[in-house]
Amino acid sequence: MSLAIKQNSGARWWKGIVFRTLSAIALTTLLLGGASNLIIRQLVTDRVQAQAVQGLGELIDSVESTASVACFANDEQLAMEVAQGLLRNSEVQGIVIRSNDKELARIERKERSTSDIAPMFRSLGSPFKKDETIGQIELHAHWDAIYQRAAENGRYATILLTAQLMLVIVGAAGMVFLVVVRPIKAISDRLHRLDATSGKSLRVPEGHEQTELGRLVDDINELTGRLVDTLDQERDLRRRQEIDQRKYQDLFAHTPSGIFVADGDGRLESFNPAFIELTWLPAMAEDSPRLLDHAGWENPAAPIELLRSSLLTHASCSGDFLLRGRRGDERWLHLAITPLGDGSAQGTVTDITLRKREELSARRLAITDSLTGLNNREGLHQAFDQLGQCFALIVINLDGFKQINDAMGFPAGDQILLNTATRIRLLSQPDDFLARIGGDEFVQVMANAQDRSQATARAEALLTELALPYPLEAGPILLGATLGIAFYPNDGADLHQLLRSAELALNGARQARGAATHGYRFFDPSLQTEVEHRRRLEDDLRQAVAAHELRLAFQPIVDIHANKLVGAEALLRWQHAERGFVSPEIFIPLAEKIGLIGEIGRFVLGEACKQVAQWRRNGMDVYVSVNVSARQIPDELPAIAVQTMLRRHKLPPQAIAIEITEGVLMSDIAVAQRWIEELRSAGLRIYLDDFGTGYSSLSYLKRFPMDTVKIDKSFIRDMGADTSDRALVEAIVTMASSLGLNVVAEGVEELAQLALLREMGCTYGQGYLFSRPVAAADFVATATRIDAELALPMPSPSPSVPPAPTFR
Ligand code: C2E
Ligand code: MG
Ligand code: MG
């Protein structure tokens, strides 16, 4: 590109700077010259006239004395000579000389002056007396002649001035041309030929380095320099823009993301190939408009809505949308829309199917129980809203799972849980919802179950199924389950409440276990009251312990072969001021739960020791057995503490026996084993209480060295009627004696039972037949009575209720 300025070949000379400058000079000079000419001419004329008047005055002066002589002498001749002499002056028109008496001479030119101006008078004094006027000279000037001379002088001056002006004009024009116009023209011509882009610059005309022209050229050079720089920059910019554009076009065409521009109605103004590929936009005729909702969206209105809201709010919006192909294939797209400000918007589309799938599987994982594949608590939570208008929620808890898990290890526990899940699954309908919400706690939601009959049928089926043996590597094992059932929405408006209700029902069912229960329970508001009742009971128990309101009762244990009393079991009694008698079967578990059992246990042992020490001092050779619950072992009742207590009451170790249940053995085997061994090596005897009710396995007896087993009263009670119970009792007695263990039969109430037990070879008995638990104060009397009655021949003692005063 060239920055040469185009020659203006058609320029008119009269528009050029030379002509204009010269005309301006000429005009100015002429105007000024004309004016000054007029003024000078006037001045010259005035001066000529003034000189003329002065000249005439001097003329008169030169003849004044001669004329005064003529007047004095009244000499007309002389006067005439004077007058003629004056008239020789061409500027005198006429002369009159008069004395005081008469006119001495009058002379006048023939040609008359056209101007009539007043004549000049000169008084003439006497030659002797200057002050005496004797005559007068009257001179008429020849004004035409004067005027003519003045005009001639004026004309001359004008000619001179004009000639001067002409010279000035020519000189000034020449100078202007040389000094200003020519260099300007030269600059202009060079400027026309200049190619600034090739780095050339304008040369300052010689001699003008310091003048305005020099500065002008410098300015022009600077300006063109700047102009060229700007042009260069612009050229660069354009080149870069072109490159960028090419790059963007490339990007647009080859990016894996879909890009489009659409108007508010979703009409696509432009889009790249990836957009078609990603959105499954169907092929269409070139000229038919293509719409954003033509893509395979599952819900085509949703992306359009996003587009509109972006345009409406003038803000970028984004969302994830599902595409569904013709063959049912799915694709997740992330759509981000940015308004362009002209009513249209630009959008990008990216494939997020993989991420969505990962999210989905992560979400699924978060709501799934990894062991059973059922939902977990979170899954139940999330599904809660979709479970329907009304349904039954059954909470299923395996009985004794914890013990099995502890005793047999996690693999066995997992096996049981998996098996349970399968069984529950088998018993569910397609609409039901299953979850495992805790270790061994399952939930089955029965969709649309509205009344108890349906739920009852299901609960019974579940209990039957779960009562079946679990096949484990070590051999089949029986567990059973307890269920709690609550209805939505009656028993709980939200999951939290509903689960709580079901758990309450479950607890209710569990507590009633062994009594008239079916292994399940429906929630009812009384359970809630029970919970509150229990909470109040807890408070009361705390107070009772603090106020030493608990007492011990003693129930005799009898040697049914030697027919004598050998000991007693210490049993706790709580007589509440308002509630009356509270069973230890109620408050002992409560004390375990609220952490009071340690304190209570120490009290029981202390009291028992005190009593037995007193009796032994009084000559009664008896022992007292003390119940110890699992929670007390080992820290709440260490073996050393028991020994200390015995020592304090100066008791031999045989004076105290410790009764534990199988629960103790199941919690932490190693700990229990050590505790038992310590006590036994200290000489104490360990009784296994309630034998037969739990998972009584003979292996316990082998693993844990015991002294005595106490057969649970439920077997003794039913022994008469139920032959299987009788066989069981007999088996226990036989087995125990073969292991070198003693047997105490609990709950002996009838003579027939006593007879049977004797027959079987059972050594000891305990029960209402001999005595109810009695207060310590009544024990000696009771013991005496029992010994006396046992000494009588059969069929005594009497089957009637013993007369001894009893607590209960
Ligand atoms: P347990 O150790 O099996 O005590 C025997 C229970 O059978 C006592 O109930 C006793 O009154 C009752 N019983 C005795 N003979 C007969 C009978 O002929 N027929 C019937 N139907 N029942 C009879 P109690 O006193 O209500 O105690 C219940 C349970 O409370 C005890 O069962 C024991 O497990 C627990 N317990 C009582 N006192 C204590 C204690 O000091 N510490 C601990 N840890 N538990 C205790
Ligand atoms: Mg007991
Ligand atoms: Mg018992």
Please provide a written account of the structure.
- The chain is of the alpha+beta class.
- It contains 23 helices and 26 strands.
- The chain is rod-shaped, with a radius of gyration of 73 Å.
- It binds ligand C2E and magnesium ion (2 copies).
Structural topology:
Elements: H1 17-72, H2 76-87, E1 92-99, E2 103-108, E3 120-125, E4 133-141, H3 143-193, H4 212-254, E5 258-263, E6 268-271, H5 273-279, H6 301-313, E7 317-324, E8 330-339, E9 344-351, H7 353-366, H8 377-383, E10 391-398, H9 401-408, H10 410-426, E11 433-438, E12 441-447, H11 452-467, E13 470-472, E14 475-477, E15 481-488, H12 495-511, E16 520-522, H13 525-546, E17 550-559, E18 564-576, E19 580-582, H14 584-593, H15 597-617, E20 623-627, H16 639-648, E21 656-660, H17 662-667, H18 669-681, E22 685-691, H19 698-703, E23 708-711, H20 713-718, H21 723-738, E24 742-745, H22 751-760, E25 764-765, E26 774-775, H23 776-791
Parallel strand pairs: 15-16, 18-20, 20-21, 21-22, 22-23, 23-24, 24-25
Antiparallel strand pairs: 1-2, 1-4, 3-4, 5-6, 5-9, 7-8, 8-9, 10-12, 10-15, 11-12, 13-14, 17-18, 17-25, 17-26, 18-19
Low-confidence spans: 1-7, 796-808
Mean pLDDT: 88
SS summary, helix count: 23
Percentage of residues assigned to helices: 40-55%
Enumerate the distinct ligands: ligand C2E, magnesium ion
Give the terminus-to-terminus CA distance. Answer: 124 Å
